[in-house]
């Protein structure tokens, strides 16, 4: 009788442990959610070729408004209201995407002898800085707004160092409300803004060298 009681006392806790393990395994059979990752994607805009100036430019990493400073794909629902796509994210922060494409397009345009990123060179005469005010879906469109400053470090007066400061805002229509449509629309907006930015930089350099 005593042996039977001892066996029961041993087997009962073991049974509970086995049941807990089985329940834990069964609870993990639900497949995890798959997070889709997106990035901007467009061909560099066609730029009218010009003789490159014998100068270097460094493109600093753009800053971004706090509301868009994450990998979330943001939807502006109205005044004071934002939402995001639950299972979709930007591959990298919008600041890195916009900066990277601006650097690529300025380099492809060939208007400088050399172009560098914020971590490459401190010897550049020109510096491009930016701030992203909008990077989201808004009213069925992909909205991108960037404030850009071109700086000439050769000028001694800090005020005269500012070659220009401009706001570039563009929205592109979306086929539907989806992450794919948002990525496509913001890519189109970035391409349009980049085209204008490169043209403005080229014009400013032409004016500067003509003085």
Tell me what you see in this structure.
It is built from three helices and nine strands; from the N terminus they run H-E-E-E-E-E-H-E-E-E-E-H. It has 211 residues and is α/β, with parallel strands linked by helices. Strands 1, 2, 3, 4, 5, 6, 7, 8 and 9 form a nine-stranded mixed β-sheet that branches. The chain is elongated and about 55 Å long. About 3% of the residues have low confidence.
The number of domains: 2
Number-wise, the strands total: 9
Q: State the name of the first-level CATH class of the largest domain.
A: Alpha Beta
Output mean pLDDT.
Answer: 87
Task: Report the order of strands and helices.
Answer: HEEEEEHEEEEH
Q: Which class of secondary structure composition applies to the elements?
A: alpha/beta
- The total count of helices amounts to 3
Tell me the radius of gyration. 27 Å
Which descriptors apply to this entry?
9 strands; 9-stranded mixed sheet; 3 helices; 211 residues; Rossmann fold
Secondary-structure map with pairings?
Elements (H helix, E strand, L loop, with lengths): L1 H26 L8 E3 L14 E7 L3 E2 L7 E7 L2 E10 L3 H16 L2 E6 L8 E13 L2 E12 L9 E12 L5 H31 L2
Parallel strand pairs: 1-5, 2-6, 2-7, 3-7, 4-7
Antiparallel strand pairs: 4-5, 7-8, 8-9
Task: Give a summary of the structure in a few sentences.
By secondary structure, the chain is of the alpha/beta class. Helix content is 35%, strand content 34%.
